[in-house]
Amino acid sequence: MKYGKIIFAIIFLSGISVVNAAEKLFSVLKDGNLTVEFITPKDDKACLEASMIIEKYIYKSTGKRADAAVGKAKICFQIEKGKMDPEGFRFSFPSADKMVITGGGPNGIKYAALDFCERFLGVRFLYPGPAGEHVPKIKDLNIPMKEYSDAPKFQTRTLGSGNRHWSRQRYQDWFPLHRGAMPYRVDIGHNLYKMFPPSKYEKTNPDFYPIINGKRYIPRPPRLGLHWQPCMTNPAVVKEAIRIICDAFAKNPDLRTWGLGQNDGDGYCECENCKKFYPVPDVPHRFGSKDRSLLYLQFCNKIAEGVTKKYPEATFTVFAYNHTSIAPKNFKLHPSLIPVITYDRLNWVDPERKAKDMIRQSSWSAIAKNVCWYDYFYSNQYVLPRVTSHHVARQLREGYNLRVRHIYIEHLPLGISGFGGNEQIWAEGPLAYLVLKMLWNPFQDEDKILNDWYVTAVGPKAAPYLKSCFDRIEDFWINKMPKSAWFKRCARTYLVPTWHDYLNVIDKDFFENCSKDLDKVCELAPEGDCKTRAEYFRSAFQNRRNRCEYWIQNQNVRLHRADAFTKLFFKEDFNKGFDGWGIYEHRKYPGTFVSHTKKDGYKNTGAAELRCRQGHTGGIEKTFRISQPMNFRMEVKYRCVGTTEKVIPYISAEWCDDKNEILHSVFYSDIHGVYSEDWSTAVFNFTTPYQLPGNLRIRLCISGSTKGKVQYDDLIILEAQKK
Amino acid sequence: MNLKKMTAALFIAGAALCSAAEVYDLSRIEDWAKKSPLKVHGNGILRATGRVSLFSAKIYPYDAKKTYTFKGMYRQLPGSDSNIFRIGFLPLDKDKKLIEYYTSHPNIATETVLVKAAAATDNFIVIKDGKKWNKSGLVAYNTKPDRSDLPNKNIIRQVPKTIEQTAEGWKITFARPIGIAIPAGTGIRQHYQGGRFRFAGNGTGGQVLSNMQFKMMDPGMKYFQVIVVSGANGIKPGEQIPVIEMRKPRIEVTE
Fold first, then answer.
1. In chain A, domain spans
2. B208 Cβ under 8 Å from any chain A Cβ
3. How many CB atoms lie within 10 A of CB B144?
């Protein structure tokens, strides 16, 4: 038996050595010298750019440029259109001194180069910014001469960050390194208003526009793209849509996809023909909107039929959103139409919500060839980083099995967003990295990817502590958050990132435990890039911790009794107008709406008057410089004159930094007054942020009503020492 | 072949010739000025190291009705990523003389007339309307509102020191005498200042430039000379000396 084991071991080991000897290797670097030349076809920009990606990281790794190559071996780049997926690629070795990198298209060849850098050079693009780039120093590189090919599982892999903007540039430069680059294979967006602008069609084709409340509705600024849809049963609208799309396709041979996303909001035509497609009875569906799926989809079907006669390869997206959330039963969707199903799938942590969404998902899958998911992360607005790595990985796998082939996620991790604020701190660790990897192939092992990320980021000793910190955050979102009142209130398309009351269910020692983990990460990370990253993660978390703790503190201050505030900070009776006040108006809806009354105010004195205009938000504002930590109480009298009951009089306190840049939404507090024709009082307490000096901006505002006015009078701000 | 077929063949061949693009080849060392630091690297690949301004050996005719496109590919080798390279041309007039930027780029809003004759020794002029005048533009005289004077070499090469409205008109004061006598009623305006080169494309390390069209930016341009600039913004710490590379560089001229 003993000899048997020895003989077996000898045979086994000799077997390994035979395999090693048989494995041929292609040398790229030897003793720090480049041994290959890069060959690209004449005038092929995409191939040269792909070559440059590899050249760049070889240079970063070795300090050697491509022009310093020794040896005769070659790496050739080529594009093979039609035979491969346009974003797929292949590495092959037709001879001992030649490696061929083939891309299915310009994106494919670029992704091949990025894959080369990750796979063979060990490069990692951990997070946006130079510190997030990991380029190991290597001297020798020998690639196994085995053919290898790859292609994305999801055709659209977008973690959206908004339009190109300086504040988002770091992320927008980083995201394509993970093969989530433009152009998308499908065009997603509210698009009908762009196709049928009144400036073009109002005079010649007023019948393109909907009948609403018995009248033809012609959209006007500022609602050119909101709350209206073209008449979806008018054959002339369909004909014109087909013409517009075919013209665009003829002009651009690379364009074969079109977004048929309806305009945001409602405004569906109520003409007799359109009404025939309304459900009976016409009651709201489970998301609270009236169902217009049938009307919308029959319209999209006709456009798709018309266009595909000329361009059979064309694809179109249609929104499964708002009034068209639910797929109509027994409907035959044109095979070129791709439903874009909008939902924040963090909702799936609740089995009931998931089950309901799966029914909706199945109803779309039943009528469509494949579907697109539109999801919401809104990372830069969550005060506690919304890290849900494993949850998203599982979801993507499920999605792929449900024939989801396109994913668009409103990520917004950095920069200015529609919610205000300008986030520049990367606090969500490996989330985006993992999601982008899983979008390429959701059947990868997410733990393997995450561990690689942690080890590469901070070194093997510190990695378990970094993992522990992010696992704890994920545990909160998956297991604790669903018990919050916030989650219950957010039973809608997306969870609301600017309401932060999910923090009410956070464990008392949560922040301290995370901080301890990150202290340990900093202690154990080796000097150099790993240490830099460790300290960055710690400061990023500390920043978020401060914000969370501010929110919790502010909530406590809101509960303080009136007698806790004794000292007068500011008083305004509006008897002599409102000198020193500025006007706050929504940038999209400017206009004069503020006036002053001398006698019509509280107790027949002066007051500020804000006239309501089509429900738009506006008001007056004043800014104070604050240097000391303080608690405040703001009180103001108001009354509604001739408004609708939907009016929202509200007062707010917003904090800006020393340079008057608005801070994160967590530093914003307000109170909404209720409709009242008699004088009422709006009152709330708030506290100073941790970064002082800063600027406090208070506002007295209106919103919601289309007529009438709101009067504000006798504003008092009291202060109390912060304990 | 019968006559009809022959006519058709000749017509097609003629049409093909007419639509074929004219090409100014720049892919050989000799296509560039003699002192050029260019070196050949492979087939049609030219490289130059360091801070270089490369001029084409030839001057090419320019026809405003045609479209000119830089073809081929242009890049800097990795290692000097923040450094800028530019591809462009020098605009030349009918005498093959350089058209200076300030002779051909008027600030249209400043078009006016002199209300008072100016002597060469004066350090000021008085103009009818100086509302849109600024302290950064040079001053051109003998101007015409339809801009048919461009390129206009009648330039006071000074920028205004002060611009003030007086009872007579707008008084524009300079640091030194204007050096030329100009009669009252003469057309006058400000011209923008700019460099000698006009660029069709700018890139940094990591970028590949190709297919850069350029059009007449200067009235009166009849010829041009190609210029490629690399490493002009110095070498940053940690970066290498820039290497500019041109692959089959050429200019395609199409109708």
1. 24-151, 192-444, 445-559, 563-721
2. yes
3. 12
Residues 6+ positions from A409 with CB-CB distance below 8 Å: A158, A159, A160, A374, A375, A376, A377, A435
pLDDT at A11 > cutoff 50: no
Helix axes A235-251, A293-310, angle to 10 degrees: 40
- Residues A323, A292 contacting (CB under 8 angstroms): yes
A chain contacts of residue B21, beta-carbon cutoff 8 Å? none
Nearest to B72 among A43, A65, A66 (CB): A43
pLDDT of residue A592: 60
Residue type (1 letter), A722: K
Question: Hey, is the C-beta of A599 within 8 angstroms of any chain B C-beta?
Answer: no
For residue A480, what is the DSSP state? Answer: I
CB contact under 8 A, A65 and B240: yes
Interatomic CA distance for residues A518 and A548, integer angstroms: 17
Q: How far apart are CA A232 and CA A308, in angstroms?
A: 19
Q: Nearest CB to A52: which of B41, B78, B248? A: B78
CATH code 3.30.70 for B102-191: no
For domain A24-151, which architecture applies? Answer: 2-Layer Sandwich (3.30)
d(CA A418, CA A162): 9
Tell me the chain A residues in contact with residue B78 when contact means C-beta distances shorter than 8 Å: 52, 55-56, 59-60, 65-66
Closest CA to A49 of A177, A158, A150, A180: A177
Residue of B101, B182, B176, B178 whose CA lies nearest to B141: B182
Q: Angle at CA A622, nearest 5°, toward A620 and A627?
A: 155
pLDDT confidence tier of residue A690, bands split at 50, 70 and 90: confident
B67 phi/psi in degrees, rounded to 5:
-105, 130
Question: Where would I find the H helices in A96-163?
Answer: 106-119
Which class is domain A563-721? mainly beta
> What distance in Å separates the CA atoms of residue A469 and residue A464, rounded to the nearest whole number?
9
Pick the residue from chain B with its C-alpha nearest to A58.
B78
Instruction: Note the pLDDT tens digit of each residue in A477-509.
Output: 999 999 999 999 988 889 999 899 999 999 999
Q: Do A65 and B206 touch (CB under 8 A)?
A: no
> Which residues have a Cβ under 8 Å from the Cβ of A5 and sit 6 or more positions away?
none
Q: H or E element: which one contains A200? A: helix A198-201
Q: How far is A556 from A399, CA to CA, in rounded Å?
A: 42
For domain A192-444, the CATH class is alpha beta
Q: Please answer whether residues A530 and A411 qualify as being in contact, where contact means their C-beta atoms are separated by less than 8 angstroms.
A: no
Chain A CB contacts of B41 below 8 Å: 67
Is residue A414 exposed (0-12), middle (13-18) or buried (19+ Cβ within 10 Å)?
buried
For residue B77, the chain A residues in CB contact (below 8 A) are: 55, 65-67
* Residue B227 token pair: 């210029």
Q: pTM of the predicted model, to two decimals? A: 0.84
Whole-number pLDDT of residue A20: 42
Give whole-number Cα distances, A387 to A346, A351, A377, A378, A519, in Å: 11, 19, 9, 11, 20
Q: What is the pLDDT of residues B165-215, one digit of tens each?
A: 999 999 999 999 999 999 999 999 999 999 889 999 998 877 899 999 987
Residues of chain A contacting residue B73, judged by C-beta atoms under 8 Å apart: 43, 45, 48
Do the beta carbons of residue B247 and residue B235 sit within 8 Å?
no
Residue B63 DSSP one-character state: -
- Domain limits of chain B? 21-99+197-254, 102-191
Length of chain A (residues)? 723
What is the predicted ipTM? 0.77
Which of A43, A55, A67 is opposite residue B73, by nearest beta carbon? A43
Task: Give every CB contact of residue A17 below 8 A, 6+ residues apart in sequence.
Answer: none
Domain range B21-99+197-254, CATH class: mainly beta
d(CA A150, CA A190): 33
